[in-house]
Structures are given as C-alpha cells and as structure tokens.
C-alpha cells in the first residue's frame, strides 16, 4: 500500500505550489486548498505506516481505505495538472509590431483570460469534490479505526524459520562458511577474555544468513552455559524481545515470563542479572535497526552474536559449490523428500527488503516491473522516467533532480535489489537488470496495487478487465503476437500515465491521444524503419501532460512541428536513429521545461538558448553563442562544424559560462589547444572531458597555459587527433585525474622530442595512448621504442597505472558518425579493460582491436 503514499507526495507538493501562484488569490480556492492539504497530510502519515508491512497483515477495511486514498490522490493530481496545462501560455510572441500581429496578440490574450477563468472554475470544482471525498475518507478512517489497524495483525510466520529448523544433513555447501564463522568466534573469544564480543552477518535477503548463523549456533552451543536463538520482526517490540531471550536462556525459570507485566527496564535488569556470571551465546535474527541493539554490557568474556541489515561484516558473495556438493544438491532437487513451495517462500523473504525501503524508493523500484525479464535497463532512461512520473521530488537546494534520481538508483543497487551491468571505466553503473525472482515479486505487487499492467501476449490479460481496473501504466512487451489494440481499449483508459512499448505498433500510436493525462510515452527500440511513412506522430500534440518522449532507435523520419505544444515536456530522446531524423522543427525551442534533449547528429534549431532548463544536450549546434545561456547544463555532447576563428572563440567563451558542467564531449573541425584548454580548465565541476578534432593536428605546444589549480574535479580526460600529453599540464593541475587518453607521434616519443612523464598526476589509474604512424613508415622499431618509453613512465608512477596502446595513421578528416563509432569502440574497450583488471590480469600489452 506504500504506492498510495508515493502517489500522495507529489500531490501535496503541487497543492503547496498552487497556494503560491496567482490563481489561489481567490479566497474560496485558497481556503479549500489549505483544508485539503491538511486532510491529505493526515492520510499520508497513516499510509506511510501501512506501507511498512505486507498487505496480508492488515484487515480488509484498511486495504480498501488505502486503495481509495490512492485513487483520490491520482485523480486530484490529474486535476491540478490539467488546470496548470489550461492556463499555460500557448505561445511565445517575439514582439512583432505590425497591426496584424498586434491584433492576433490581443485576441490571444483575451482568449487566455477566458481560458483561465474556465480553468479556475474547473479547479475549484475539483478541489471541492476532493475535499468532500477526503472528508468521507477521514470519517471512514475514524469509524473503522484505521490508525489502530494500521499497526497490522501481528507478524506473519517468517518463511526463514524453515531454514532455522532445517536439519544440518539437508544443507549443502555451507560447511566451509560455518566453520570459518565458528573459528572467528572461538579464536576471538580466547583473545578477549572478560570482554563482550559482538559479530554481525550482513547481506541481502535470501542470501543464507539465517541458515549460516543457525548452523554455527547448533554446532557450538554446547560450549556455553546459556544460549538463545531469537528471531525478531521488522519493527521490534523491545519488551517482547527481552522476554523471548529470557525464555530461551532458561525455559524452566522463565516459563511464565510472557504472562508477567514488566517494562523494558525491568526486563533488561533481569537479563543482566541472569547473565552476570555465565558464559553465553545469543543470536538475534533479522535486525533492521542498529540503534535498537545498544544493550547488554556485562563482563566474563561473553559472546553476543547479532546479524541483520547493517554494515559491519558483509556476507555479499557465495563461493561456487564444489563438484561433490553440486551433485548432492542436484539429487536433492530432483528427488525431494518433501513438498515444494520454495518459490513463494523466497518471494516472502525478498519482500522484507522491499518493505524496508523508504516510500520514495518503493515506488521507484516498483516502476521496474514495466520492463521485461532479463531486460537491460539504461540508468539514464530509468531516472528520467522516474522524474517524469513525479517519483523524484526536490531535495537539497542546488541538487538537480537527475542527481537525486541517480542517488535513488545507487541506493537500490547497494541494497542488491537491482543488478548493475555495464560499469564504465570511471566505475559508474550505466545500466541494470532485475533478478527474475525480484521481478516476479515486483510484478505481483504491481498487480495487487493497480500500479501497472503488463501485456506480454500470454493470454492472461483481457481488455475488459484492464479497462475496468483503472491501470495507470501499460507495458506492451516483445512476446505479444497480436496488435495491442486487440488487448486494450485505449478510449476507455484516459487515466493511463505511462505507456511503454517494446515492439512497434502503429495502431496504438494512432490511438495514443486517448490517454489524456499521459506523462511517459516510451517507444525506445520500436523499429519503425520498415514503414516509417505510416508513423504519424502528430497525434502526440494532444498529450499536453507529456513529460517524457522516448524515440531512441525508432528510425522515425520526421518530428512534427506540433511538438512545440507539449509545454510540460522534460525529456526528448532521439538518439541512435542514424540519419533518419534530418531536421528538428524550430518549435522545439518553445519547450522551456526540457531538461534532456538528445537529437544525436541532427542539427539543433536556432533559438536553443531559450531552453534554459536544459541539463543534458546532444546534437549539432549552429549558433554557438546561444550555448552560454544554458547555465544549468551538466552534460554536453556537441558536434560543431566550423573553421571561423571568431566563432571558435565564441564557442569556448560560451563553454566557460557553464559552471555546472560535469561531462563535456566536443567534436569540432579545429582546435586551439593553448586557448581552449585554459578556459575549460576553469570549469569547477567538470569530471569528464572528451575533445575531438576532425582534422589531425600533429603539431604540439610544450605546455598548456593553465594554472596549477586547473581541472580540480576532472577524473577522465581524452584527447583525439591532436597532441596533448600529460607533461603539458603543470604540477598541481588535474589532482583527481584517474583515466587519460592522449594522441602522439610514435617518433616524437621514441626520439625523446616529447616527454610523456606522468608522475605529477597523483590519482592516475589508467592510460590509453594512440600512437600516430606516419604515412610511408614501415618500421616497427619506432613503435616498440615508443611503447617502451610509455611503459617506463607508468612503471615509475607511484600508482603503476595500467597502459593500453593502439596505432593509427594520420586521418585527414573523420565524420561525426565515425567519431561516434570510435567513441563506442573505446567505451567497449574500457569495459573489457576494467573487467580484466578486476580479474588481476596484466593489461600492459593488451591485444589491439
């Protein structure tokens, strides 16, 4: 039920913003909004409590109430967004002074005022209706004592108890870990006579922590005067926990302990007295809050073992089974002695990790249910979809929404709820997968909470049931063998917020405007290349709520001019479409809320400087002066063709204004390294820099004119087609640089004309060098000598960074497509390099690609 709490958060924030707007100056609206916010905040508090436990632990009336609150919050948020859409400025006049345009402008203003009046009337009615529903739900909350029932009906039987009571002969492959744990316990006990010892076993759900702890406990418990193995709940009652421990320690003495009324302090004193002169072993199973376990401080060399979801001792990997253990496990599975049911138990175990998440992470994790099994999910795609749905709410001042979303992604990865794939050379996760068992859990929860509907062609979904369930998200997956319009009646589902297609479906695209409050339309990977003329994207002009439009790898030929009407659009992704989309319509520059714009090799229209909310931009730029207006940019991939010296200077001056820039990749015709590097070195947040020139510039300067404090945050630096070796930077510059790629003549390095010393770069870990082989050269001796010089440079560096070299002839010119291909090739080489380095292989002389 925490999805309801997740849906409530953006609504409360939007209503709060509405109070600050000019539209709330009408007393009736302002008073109603304040009253509604108060009621919703009370509901939100109850929903957060409900969201900490599985649904089966609540009475039916609690679940019904939470479901109604969820629908109320969705409905009200749609009403607020619709109101804002209606009063949004529908055009941006450029100050024309002729009479015809002035008349048009007057009529537009009059229409706008009329529309605002109508919209204000509609929002007033919607707020009054929501107030009435909220009051009714509030009455129901009190009548059926929802707060009281929100504590649940007690903890369900923990499926891990099967592991606790499993006989040791049934366990396979645990002997080594058990004996290792016992050795640590017993050896440590000998060394620490008279001191309390604690040990934690930590890892993700289902890894086998309970089984390991119980196996060790059973083997050594005879060595202690008193022992106890106690399992606790997610929200432990300390009084009950102490009673459990006392009963386990001495069942005869504490037979009636549960019937005695004693408070927390009395039980703790009793426990201390009982253990005072004894050697004891206590195992506390399933601890989720470390602060709850700062107790039991006595002497006499006792051992206290606890395990749970904390960060002291990690059990984060299981060694492969031996051949004998694998055979034993195989026969146990094929010829079981008892009944099955392990899949359900594992889902229950995994659900503990889900319900331990804060509400915002629950909603973000649940969104992964829309992706197919074993699907590789790009990190950036996922985060921008989260933002479009409103799952990522503003954090600390100055923190971009994407960076906040990235922290959500990393937290899910740290909790092992998603599996990282494609870790780049800088150690950043580029994509993830969801384990099959986790995905099964998410799909089950998603269906229960009416969060999303998955259509995979299995025949289990029927169009009528889908339309009646009021599903908010639809995922059409690859295995569908029939058109989606046969499964879904789009005209009866105006409430849908996300539509994700994994297979091209032109019929659905033509009906897409039926989804009146659609926030996310993701067609990534739906290849319309066979019949691109049949794809008419003009239908999207009616999707006025749209925040995310994903057209990557669709091969659509034309972006409609009507796209300028989507005033709420935040993400427009046209990457990896080759040369399909040749021209981007000028109306794109009206999308002032755009934060992500990727048009790949297409030309960006004039007026791009209007998009002052942009955080990430990729494309060909014509007017470089406008770039300096995009002060929110964090990521820039820029193709620019031009040899005009004054325009080159304007480009670099514009780049110097982008103080939030973190990742910068530039492809230009020519470069002035002495000037350009100096300006770029002053960007305070720059972490990654890739510079390309289409025309080879084999000449070089002795040093760059940069200060010792240049590039303070740079971690990755790659220069292509011009000389820029490490020794050209002064000591003190690039203090955090870990990865460097540079280009140089092999003859210059071999002959000593070019110094490749890198000892002044203290953080360097990885070096890649492109050795230019001059035309007509047939001797390998020069390359071997250059390689030897480079190897000596890395060997004498304190970090002994890894070295890769490859050869290239002098290219006279490279196209943007060729450069992109090389960039991808280098990225793939980095992945292989990083993987080999992690395996401990020698990377000094890797094979050339």
General description of the model:
The structure is a single chain. This protein has 849 residues and is α/β, with parallel strands linked by helices. Among the domains are: 2-149; 161-308, P-loop containing nucleotide triphosphate hydrolases (Rossmann fold), CATH 3.40.50; 342-446, Arc Repressor Mutant, subunit A; 677-849, no CATH class. The protein is built from 23 helices and 22 strands. Helix 1 (2-20) runs antiparallel to helix 2, helix 7 packs across helix 8 (209-220) and helix 9 (238-249) runs parallel beside helix 10 (264-275). The longest helix is centred in the first third of the chain and has 45 residues, at 99-143. Residues 89-97, 102-107, 160-165, 295-318, 337-341, 460-468, 811-824 and 832-849 have low confidence and may be disordered. InterPro entries: Disease_R_plants, LRR_dom_sf, LRR_R13L4/SHOC2-like, NB-ARC, P-loop_NTPase, RX-like_CC, Rx_N, WH-like_DNA-bd_sf.
